Input
Amino acid sequence: MTKIRELCLVAVIVLLVSIIAIQSITNSRLLSLIVQQPQQISLTFLSTIMKAGKQLQQQITGQNTDNTGNCQTAALTPASFTQPSGSHNPAKSLSLTGIFKQVENSVVQITSTVSNPNMQIIINGTPLEGQSTRLGSGFVYDNQGHIITNNHVVGNAKTVDVTFVDGNTYTAKVVGTDPFSDIAVIKITDDFSAEKVLPLVIANSSSLQVGEQIVAIGNPFGLSDTMTTGIVSQMGRLLPNPDTGFSTPNTIQTDAAINPGNSGGPLLNMQGQVIGINTAINSATGEFSGIGFAVPSSTILREMSALIQTGCYSHAWLGISGSSITPDIAQSASLPRNYKGVVVGSVQADSPAEKVGLQGIVQNDVSNTRQVGDIITGIDGHPVRNIDDLINYIDSHKSIGDNVVLTVNRHGQILNLNLVLQTRPPSLENATPQESILP
Output
């Protein structure tokens, strides 16, 4: 009886041990499955996020990191890309009041003192030096204190005074000038940390169209913070510069009221972005007549780096004087009355034009007649209708050392002349009014 009880007890113990072992194995497998499954889910979720992020990067940057050769990606939808709250929308037009409030702290008055030699009073062979004060405008370019204005505003001065809208005045040094484009850069040398310096955004003027509304801000006749408005009257105007003998190309014509003192101030689009520098007016009285000119912002963008770093900007030079062909000239050269092109008037010595053999007008002293030389009808395959086309193309698309191909009509024979553009000289000897349109 006792042995039977012992055997039963042993059997129960074995059974309990077996149940415990089986439960332990089951729990262990279940635990292992529970531990592994979140890892699998987590990795799949992370992979999905990374893949989606890669696709979004390709859509935004145009990069295909899979190297599949397929650059076409799905367009972004508003749900997949949202513009950050409060960011500037350059496409949004502002009211005139809104533009003024946005830029008024960025437009300054510039006062310079320049020396003027009096050639009528000579002392010991030296002209008597006088001084005059020039008043103009400018606008903030960056947070380092660089300000853009016209070259004729600073003149030959080394330092100028800069006055903000709050009346505070600071000293600035002239760091870069380009008399050909009539651009100058000055930099404030005083501590101007008390000012709310807000650099203006510079847009690309090449997208402007005739009829667009624009705004001019400056200091006409010393009346600070004056705002006027008008439209873009025309693009690509040549602005003769008697001080240099070269024309300023691609200027913007506007009917916004511009008067003495506006020079150097910004011309703005309806987003408050700079599209030009107010520079000159066409007037018999020297005051507003409805025709003003501004140096385009495309010129600013092209030159600013060089002006700040080196203090100057070098222009490419062809080396001719000329004019647009007229019906009378065309008929005298046995050409159709409405023939288009640029008549080469004269060729400058040691210029690219002379080196390639370009020919100007020849004067016959015996018969007292003039024979037309070369007529430029194209440049790099682009038609040249008038002198504006030639100058604007070289200034906008060419640099020193570039090759150009001129298509020339020489007494009825069409020639293609290859030449290399050189650096424009600082001045021309024996310049005549004709040289005011030299490219």
